[in-house]
UniProtKB/TrEMBL annotation:
The lineage of its organism: Bacteria, Pseudomonadati, Pseudomonadota, Alphaproteobacteria, Rhodobacterales. Keywords: Transferase. This is CoA transferase. It comes from Pseudogemmobacter faecipullorum. The keyword GTP-binding does not apply. One of its GO terms (molecular function) is transferase activity.
Amino acid sequence: MKPLAGIRILDLTRVLAGPFCTAILADLGAEVIKLEPPQGDDYRHVGPFVSGESALFALNNRGKQSLVVDLKADEGRALALKMAATADVVVENFRPGVADRLGIGAAALQAVNPQLVVASISGFGQEGPAADLPAYDVVVQAMSGWMDATGEEGGTPLRTGEAIGDVAAGLYAAIGILAALLGRGTHGGSHVDIAMMDCLVAMLPTSHALQHYAGQPVKRTGNRHPLSTPFGAFRSADGQVIIAVLGPRQFAGLCALMGQPELARDPRFTSDETRTSNEPALRALIEAWTTSLPTDALIAELRQAGIPTAPIQTLAQALDSPHARARGLVADLPHHRLGSSRVAGQPIRFDGEKPLSVAGAPALGGDTRPVLTALGLTPDQITGLIAAGIVQETEFA
């Protein structure tokens, strides 16, 4: 199942947001040609490294071809435009205005291919007062409200443990590209503008509910839910356990399991709102029970009673679970240097099958000759471009 088979994507992205997007599209069957500068994608130089290969680059560039092109040279720009003429999509994540200055902005690209979908990923969008600001994930987390909503109750703001701004922008970019491809038959090509800031603001439904509808400021609540109670982490005899109760039926089941069915009728705890208002008192009652049992025993009892629960696992524990293995959450792909590289891959299943790229991340310039040959260049022309430093190839071709 390769739903994007036949779609050609010219990938001008680097680091995380753009490569995360195009790796998803490669998994789904698109042909992704990654144009890199002579020094390569920045992530090729960021560890951890295995045999000289960046793990971050390997994870986010599976299934792509690499062509090194000097876009600052006239011949390099001409090559990029020639490739765009036969592509369905171009994805770039330069700072706004840079692509235009290089002569490969949306207008220039669509001049050679009016049906082209151009996706531009940036920190703050292609226009607006903050458009020119440099943006890393932590910058956008800080400005979007994510950090303010994250952290221990009464504590300081915290960034999330992953680069959620980059990943969110990559996901929304994939959505935007697929929508633009679907609408291309009616509307022609389009320029899709994806901003990390916009994506993170859109991904705060609970904060928006508090801000716009409840008229309440967003407060940090640590590992508990700001609106639903009991819904979060509780102490056990040997650690912590997640208990996620939503609605009166589940709460009554928890009270019965604790041996205190009368708590479900206590006026302090008869609704989500009153339980949240009286959260400290309810937590004390729950933890008087949970701390009497080890985590494994608690989870067994809660699951038997039909109450959503979980241990707090490390990634290693999660991936070692029978469920993760059955679902194929990670896979090994052939790699030019490592032999094989482990990747997470896109998670969506189509008719029971999960599409995944057939190869790992490419060597820098490893596909120069085959890509340019497919573009119609002769061996002598390719050799001339290599000699002039416009393109380069690698020993791992």
